[in-house]
Amino acid sequence: MASINLQRLRGVAMEDNDFMIELVDLFPDDMPEQLDWLRKAVERADTDSTAKAAHRMKGATGNVGADRLSQICGELEQSSRVAEAAPSQEVLAEIELEWARVRVGRAT
Amino acid sequence: MPLLESHGENRPILEETEGPHVLSALVADEEPSVRAVVKHALEALGHTVRVVHDGREAFQLILKERFDLVVTDWEMPGIDGLDLCRRIREVRLPGYTYVIILSVRRGKTNLMRGLSVGADDFMAKPFDPEELRVRLHTAERILKLESQLSRANDELRRLNDGLLKKSRIDPLMEINNRLTFEEQFSQFHEICVEREVAYGIVMCDVDHFKRLNDHFGH
After folding, report:
1. Looking at chain A, which residue has its C-alpha nearest residue B45?
2. Residues B96, B89: Cα–Cα separation, whole Å
3. Which site among A12, A23, A49 would you substitute to test the B interface, given the most B Cβ atoms closer than 10 Å to its Cβ?
4. What is the tens place of the pLDDT at every residue in A42-67?
5. Nearest CB neighbour to A14, from listed B34, B41, B73
6. Hey, is B71 helix, strand or coil?
7. 3-state SS assignment for residue B94
8. Residue at A53 is within a domain
9. Within a domain: A20
């Protein structure tokens, strides 16, 4: 799966190329902040905050076609809401890896 | 005489409004990219758009400015989308505000929670501009009906006030009639009873009034 679903991006930007570029530029602005928030929640083993952070990231990433990243965030949200156990560091690593892919994809 | 015809020309009370309808819209979402895409889609449809970050900001603006349409996220810090919706329905705003909740939440339970606090529609994220375009047909239909109804209501109120006034005046003499006397007198009587004061009545009558009429005309 490509890190950014171009079809989705084109659709949401209504084929407006200038707006597409604007959107891609806009998207990562507060991602580092959100990732940081998520990382801290996972480290504190705070399932509630983890679910909230993952929920927000799911929406933000899904909106611009970062489908895979959005999907992982969604899974983390779900597992944090049901399981009492601390969220897994592995999922966090996966999210960070996928975010790096999205950033690289953006640059190419 | 039927009420509606007294208005003069046979203009229907429910009038059609012509042309495409430009909506004033407000978008509330924490996410900059979501605000951007919803604004972009609404503007492409010719509507005017304001954006805010959360429910509190949205509600403050709604109290100051008139919006036909509010597109709001569910999860927001402070006042969330449901709370915003509830508040919009509680305050008396001039005209109807059509509210669409745009959320990553799905499923029947969430849909019902949204609708039960007064949302008109529910859209799932990721946001789809085409879906919004189609859903706005319903919004425009409802907003149009609402504005026609409220204009019709104003018109009826105006007519009713006129009739109320007319029914208390004698058309021939153009002075207060018996109904006005009964209303004013019963009020006066109650006040006197309450304050335990006496009052007197002077009654004048004109004998053979018919002769006056016959002589002077009506």
Report:
1. A14
2. 9
3. A12
4. 888 888 899 989 988 898 889 888 99
5. B41
6. strand
7. coil
8. yes
9. yes
Cα–Cα distance, B218 to B215 (Å, whole number): 9
Strand, coil or helix: what is B72? strand
Cα–Cα distance, A21 to A106 (Å, whole number): 10
Test mutation, B31, B72, B123, chain A, max A CBs within 10 A: B31
Shortest CA distance from B36: residue in chain A: A23
| Alpha-carbon dihedral B148, B149, B154, B155, rounded to 10 degrees | 70
Contacts of B49 in chain A (CB under 8 A): none
Reported as a pLDDT band with limits 50, 70 and 90, residue B7 is very low
Q: Does domain B24-152 have CATH number 3.40.50.10490?
A: no
Does A39 touch chain B if contact means CB atoms closer than 8 Å? no
Domain boundaries, given as residue ranges, for chain B: 24-152, 172-218
- Is a pLDDT exceeding 70 seen at residue B14? no
Decide if A9 touches B, using CB distance below 8 A: no
Taking Cα atoms as reference points, which of A102, A89, A86 lies closest to residue A47?
Answer: A86
- In order of B175, B197, B215, the CA distances from B101 in angstroms are 58, 64, 77
| pTM assigned to the model | 0.75
Please check whether residue A55 touches B, CB under 8 A. Answer: yes
A1, part of any domain: no
Q: List all residues of chain B from 11 to 70 with a beta carbon under 8 Å from chain A.
A: 30-34, 36-37, 40-41, 44
Query: Do residues B106 and B62 touch, judged by C-beta distance below 8 A?
Result: no
Q: How many domains does chain A have?
A: 1
pLDDT digits (tens, 9 = 90+) for B21-33: 899 999 999 988 8
The verdict on a CB contact (< 8 Å) between B32 and A30 is yes
Beta bridge partners of B28: B52, B72
